[in-house]
Amino acid sequence: MKVCERQLDIIQKISDAPGASGFEDEVLKVAREAASWMPRIEEDAMRNLFLYRKEHDGSKPVIMLDAHSDEVGFVVHSIKPSGCLRFVPDGGWSTSGLPSSKVLVRNALGEYIPGIIALKPVHFMSAAERSASSGIDIANLVIDIGATSREEAIEKFHIRIGEPVVPSAKFEYDEKNDLIFGKAFDCRIGCAALIETLKRLDGLDLPFDVVGVLSSQEEVGERGCKVAVNRVKPDIAIAFEGCPADDTFTEPYAVQTALKKGPMIRHLDRSIICSPRFQRFTLDLAAEKGLAIQESVREGGGNNGAIIQTALDGTPVIVAGVPVRYIHTMNCITSYFDYEATVQLAVEVIKALTPEIVKGF
C-alpha cells in the first residue's frame, strides 16, 4: 500500500501530542493545524473541537463524525518527602505493566518532564511483598522524576499537584511491515481518520451537513461527547475509535478485530447496540465496494456512540474502530492499512447516504 506522507505526519503529530483526559489542549493544537483548510473551526470550554465542512445553517440533515482526542493518563496527587510523586489514574489502565514505564509529567511551566513509574525494588521487598507485587496497586507506585526531596521537586522541577502525566512512547513507522508503534492510538488514530475523511469530502455536494467533533474526556465517562452531541444535534453519526485488537490471544474462529483486516464495525458492546439497519447498510456497502471490514460482538467496552445514540431522539450510529493492539497501555501497535481502510469506508458510507435512507434506519 502506498503511504501518504502528509497523512502519516498527521498521525505522528497527533499521537505524540500529550493529552490526558481533561488536558487535551496540545492535541487540539495539532488538530487545528491539520484541519486548517476547513472554513469553520470552533472549540468549547470542555476542549471539544468542532470542524465544520461548510457553513452549517440548519437547512440540511447533519452527519456527525466523532473521535475522542483524550488518552488514558494520570494526575499528580501529591509530592512525597523523598521527591517522588503519588499519582492517580485518569482513565482505565492495565496496571501490571506500569512499573519501570517512562512517563512525561507536566510541570507548572507547562513543560513535560521525564519520570519513571517505580515500585520498591525487589531487593528490598519482604517475601510477602514479593508475592503481592504481581497484583500491582497504583497506590503502591510512585513517579520518580529524579528529585531528592519534596522541596527540590517543587522549586527545581516546578512540580505541582493536579498536573497531567502521559506515556513517553514516541511514534515509529515500520514501512517494511506496515506497522505503526506509539501511544494513544485509542483514539488518536481515529482522530486522524476523521480529519482525513473530511478532507476527502471537501468539494463534494452532499445532501447533508457534515460536522466533525474531536471530543474530550471519553476515557473518564464520555463527558465531552455528552456536551458536543447537544450542540451538533446530528441526524446520523459515525463514531471513530481505536479499538482493542484480539488477534494475539483469541481462538482463530473468534477473532473479530485483527490487524490489517480493516475497520471493526461492532454490533454491540457493554454500552450500545449499534443501529442494526445502519450497521447492515454499512456491511452490505463494504461488500459491494470490496472494502476491507470486520464485524464484532463485544462482551465488554464502551464508546461515544452510546452517548450519540441516546442523547437526542435515537440517532442512528455505527462505530468504525481501527484495530489497535494493547490499548490502555504505554505502547500500542496499529497499521496504516487499517487507518486507510477506515477512511475509505467512512467516505463511501457518507457518499451513499441520503435523507430518505436515514429515515429508514
The helicity comes to: 25-40%
Shape: globular
| Name of the CATH first level of the largest domain | Alpha Beta
| Protein structure class | alpha+beta
Give the full name of the CATH homologous superfamily of the largest domain: Zn peptidases
Q: Between the first and last Cα atoms, what is the distance in angstroms?
A: 35 Å
CA-based gyration radius: 21 Å
Average pLDDT number:
95
Describe the largest sheet. Answer: 8 strands, mixed
The CATH topology label of the largest domain is Aminopeptidase
CATH architecture of the largest domain: 3-Layer(aba) Sandwich
Q: Helical segment tally? A: 10
* Overall structural domain count: 2
Strand line-up across the major sheet:
1-2-12-3-13-16-14-15
Please write the string of helix (H) and strand (E) elements. HHEEEEEEEHEHEEEHEHEEHEHEEHH
**Beta-strand content:** 15-25%
Which spans of ≥5 residues are poorly predicted at pLDDT below 50? none
Tally of DSSP β-strands: 17
Explain the layout of strands and helices.
Elements: H1 5-16, H2 25-34, E1 40-43, E2 49-52, E3 62-68, E4 73-79, E5 85-90, E6 102-106, E7 112-118, H3 127-132, E8 142-144, H4 150-155, E9 164-167, E10 172-174, E11 179-182, H5 185-201, E12 209-215, H6 223-232, E13 236-244, E14 264-268, H7 276-289, E15 294-297, H8 304-311, E16 317-324, E17 332-334, H9 336-352, H10 355-359
Parallel strand pairs: 3-12, 3-13, 13-16, 14-15
Antiparallel strand pairs: 1-2, 2-12, 4-5, 4-9, 6-7, 6-9, 7-8, 10-11, 11-17, 14-16
Helix pairs in contact: 1-2, 1-5, 5-9, 6-8
